[in-house]
């Protein structure tokens, strides 16, 4: 992929205010060997854009570089800007479901990557739908219910070896908190698996792991 960037990316001679790295595929992300750029811009997408087109919460583009913008939308796997990591939802899959386009923010905890995206499939029909609500069956039902959750978010975990994503449900979160029994007990009382709930514990876990590394 190196020759591709020679056509579009100007690395030298431009002022860099933040470290910006783009990863072409999961191997580059896993091995931390992406390409450094200096013209990227991150923009949060509006609710109207989410309703019209779906996909991730962030648009990442390159100023005055249409070729690189196209690459970022369609082929790039992930982008790191300083300490923030974003994964391309176009490349993410949860079971048979696609997660749309654009980028989702991710948390890194040791060698685990967790990112937020729209609930689909099981994540939509079993966790964010009221327990007493009548559910439609099959893929059509999943799609209808997911469309009503376009601005809702849950956490998925990206497997850096296989590229597959799994839903971070209550069972997985309890497993992640094994070393912190007090947090486990606290989380067991939670009644939602939405990102705003799960994310609080993932943030704690990340901060604790960083402290342990010092």
Task: Write a structural description.
The chain is globular. With 214 residues, the protein is of the alpha+beta class. It has helices at 2-8, 26-31, 47-53, 66-74, 122-127, 138-147, 170-176, 181-188, 195-213; strands at 20-23, 35-37, 40-44, 58-62, 78-81, 84-88, 93-94, 97-98, 103-109, 112-117, 154-158, 165-167. The longest helix is centred in the last third of the chain and has 19 residues, at 195-213. The strands form 3 sheets. It has an 8-stranded antiparallel β-sheet with strand order 2-1-5-6-9-10-11-12.
Describe the SSE topology:
Layout: H1 2-8, E1 20-23, H2 26-31, E2 35-37, E3 40-44, H3 47-53, E4 58-62, H4 66-74, E5 78-81, E6 84-88, E7 93-94, E8 97-98, E9 103-109, E10 112-117, H5 122-127, H6 138-147, E11 154-158, E12 165-167, H7 170-176, H8 181-188, H9 195-213
Antiparallel strand pairs: 1-2, 1-5, 3-4, 5-6, 6-9, 7-8, 9-10, 10-11, 11-12
Overall form: globular
Helix content: 25-40%
Mean pLDDT: 84
Based on DSSP secondary structure assignment, what is the total number of beta strands? 12
Question: How big a fraction of the residues is strand?
Answer: 15-25%
Pairing-aware structural class of the strands and helices?
alpha+beta
One letter per element, helices H and strands E, the order comes to: HEHEEHEHEEEEEEHHEEHHH
Gap from first CA to last CA: 36 Å
Count the DSSP helices: 9
Major sheet summary line: 8 strands, antiparallel
Whole-angstrom Rg = 18 Å
Q: Uncertain runs with pLDDT below 50, 5 residues or more?
A: 1-16, 130-145
Q: Reading side by side through the largest sheet, how are the strands ordered?
A: 2-1-5-6-9-10-11-12
